[in-house]
Design a protein that fits this description.
Layout lengths: L3 E2 L6 E13 L3 E8 L2 E2 L7 E9 L2 E9 L1 E6 L13 E4 L1 E6 L2 E11 L4
Parallel strand pairs: 2-10
Antiparallel strand pairs: 1-4, 2-6, 3-5, 3-7, 7-8, 9-10
């Protein structure tokens, strides 16, 4: 399968973007994160951020060099192999006060559903 690119290659962040991943539910799920708007997430054109297991009830912090992150995770009873389709998450900019922009990516994943 050929990788799909949605955004141009100039989608690089000026500085590393914090990526907060919160896992809600019971147990652990396998998560795959890569920097860039590439599908599938594990494409050779992607830039791997994380590939492993995350326990529920916690928020994990990663860093991305791109303003878009590709995410895929397992769920349900067969968490070793039941993967949901790849999804893109984009940088969200909010302001904590009028002078300082706050940039991050907030991803919420559920262990038992899509």
């Amino acid at each position: 399968m050929l990788p799909v690119v949605l955004f141009s290659s100039d989608a690089r962040a000026a500085e590393p973007v914090p990526v907060y991943v919160t896992v809600i539910g019971e147990g652990s799920i396998r998560v795959l994160l890569s920097a860039g708007a590439i599908k599938p997430c594990d494409s050779l054109s992607g830039k791997p951020i994380f590939d492993g297991w995350l326990a529920s009830g916690r928020t994990y912090v990663f860093s991305s060099s791109e303003i878009v992150v590709c995410e895929r995770h397992t769920y349900g009873a067969m968490r070793a192999g039941d993967w949901l389709p790849d999804r893109w998450w984009r940088l969200r900019t909010t302001r904590t006060d009028d002078r300082v922009p706050w940039r991050s990516m907030d991803i919420v994943l559920y262990t038992d559903r899509r």
